[in-house]
Amino acid sequence: MSLFKKRTSKKLNEEVEEGKGVLDLGDASKFTRQMELIHLSETDLGLINKMQPIIQTHSEQLVNQFYDNIYKEQSLIEIIEDYSTVERLKGTLRVHIEEMFAGIINEEYVAKRLRIAHVHVKIGLQTKWYMSAFQGLLLSIIQLVEKMELTSRDCCLLIAAVTKIFSFEQQLVLEAYDTEIETLKAREEDKKQEIRGNVATETETLAAISEETNASFQELIAQAEEVVEHAEKGQDFSLKAKEYAENGKQFINEQGELMLTIVDSVAEIKQDVKSLLYVMDEMHEITTIVTDISSQTNLLSLNAAIEAARAGEHGRGFSVVAEEVRKLSDQTRSSVENVSQLIANTNGQIDKLSESLQEVSNTVQNGQSHMKATEEHFEYIVGTMKDTMQQNQKIMEEIDGIVNVVHLLGKGFEEVAFTAENLTSIAQDM
């Protein structure tokens, strides 16, 4: 008999009495109390079973209406595209609906619903979207019931039965959600405990490492500051060495100028010696002339003495004079010879003086050359010391930068140690 025809001889529930549904979960089943609360009975399952042919006839319509609603939510579309296809899920839903209206609830039915629920949880389907979609399916079936040719009472009985089976389905799914959520919470708590333990262990290790590293950095800072101090002392020594080198260069310059003065003086002395030699030569010529004159005078006085002797008594006075002249001539010759000897000795000394002056001149010139070379060395030393001071300045700046970085690192490790302590407290509060 079709459910779309008006019933006059029998009521719908009277027909169901002839073929009740199957409710086989055992008296001790944990679902018994739930079905009692929603008044789900084998009679209801019989009513639902009577509607299965209608559901099968309109299953495609019901499934299409269901997925029309699904497509209104983008997140649901993304879940479908990530884990399956619409066509495949439509086939699964068609079988699922037909099984709901088979009028049989047993352990296999419940297990299958629970598996579906676990899949929903696994793929991240939120309960609000499950409830909304399932409610839309329920409304579509109620609208289908309302179109059937039933009495008002039969219509209410069938809608109530459909609502009860949908309620039981939702209870199974939501319970699976709760179970899975509790399982996830337990796992999460286990992970938290494990993380808490790991964090505590690692933070203790981190704190210990931070303390050790901080101690090392403190030692490094002390050593860096000591290096800075040595660099500053080296800079001071370089500055003093530069001053000494500049003073030495100045002294060499002064000595060079003095050498030039000596060279000029020696040149003047050599010129004076030349002049003196010229004078001595002149004096030698004069002494030669005087010697010649003295010799001639002596000869003349001898001749005069001879003539005076010939003159006898008359020439005696003249003889005395001639003798005196001869003596004077001898004295003059002797003095001139002494002067000549002195001139000769003086010439010898002047020659030696000339040779000494030449040696002095040569020595001064050599000293001047050495002074010039020494001055060049001092200039090189001064330039080197300037470069050294610049390098020392750069080294000091680099070391200052390193010290600043080390200080920052030290502060960073202090912050790490402080963070590690905070992390330990957070881990304990988890």
From TrEMBL:
Cross-referenced PROSITE patterns, in alphabetical order? CHEMOTAXIS_TRANSDUC_2 (PS50111)
Q: Which SUPFAM superfamilies match?
A: Globin-like, Methyl-accepting chemotaxis protein (MCP) signaling domain
Q: Name one GO biological process term.
A: signal transduction
Any one GO molecular-function label of the UniProt entry: oxygen binding
* Domain called Methyl-accepting transducer: residue spans: 198-424
Q: Which UniProt keywords apply?
A: Transducer
A cellular component term (GO) from this record? membrane
List the CDD domains hit by this protein, alphabetically.
globin_sensor (cd01068)
Q: Which SMART domains match?
A: MA
Q: Which InterPro entries match?
A: Globin-like_sf, Globin-sensor_dom, Globin/Proto, MCPsignal_dom, Protoglobin_sensor_dom
Family matches, as PANTHER family: HEME-BASED AEROTACTIC TRANSDUCER HEMAT (PTHR32089:SF118), METHYL-ACCEPTING CHEMOTAXIS PROTEIN MCPB (PTHR32089)
Name assigned to this protein: Methyl-accepting transducer domain-containing protein
> From which source organism is this entry?
Cytobacillus kochii
The opening ranks of the lineage are:
Bacteria, Bacillati, Bacillota, Bacilli, Bacillales
